[in-house]
Amino acid sequence: MKTYQVKDLMIPLTEYATVDEDATLFDAVMALEKAQLAFDHNRYHHRAILILNKEGKVVGKLSQIDVLRALEPKYAEMQGSDGLARYGFSKKFMKSMLIQYHLWESPLKDICRKTGEKRVKDFMYAPTEGEYVSVEAALDEAIHQLVLGQHQSLLVTQDNEIAGILRLTDVFAAVFHVMKQCSI
Which one, of 118, 77, 117, lies nearest residue 98 by Cα? Predict the structure, then answer.
């Protein structure tokens, strides 16, 4: 994978969905839809929105799961609600939590209406040190970070600025392409 560099597969920041940190969840979802419509239809759709501060610098990410989690405020009451199944909790136990915490009891229409009141900065995810990769890095370095960190994407840096995003789906597509070539 040393023949590929991050810059070969990254999506420039200008082509990705972004919103200001004071934007609402509704604004973020609309920005995601707009970016998806404008994006190359031969590639996978975007699955996250990058959050910008007042200076236009990336300060966070809002994924599809973050938006869904934000729609039901009772998830905040539940400690460790991220991916309980991977810790061995059964489907039956997780369903009992749905009932116990009265999750999703309001009609979806009412829940979604509230997206205009909620700010993305309250639900965004601030990337950690392991979620940044240089635009000049070899793809093997990025794959290593994606795998060990179990990330869906990495923020690509150039001259200490965010230049774009490297998505797991694009990395997988490149690896798959190489796999197909090897089998010929």
Answer: 77
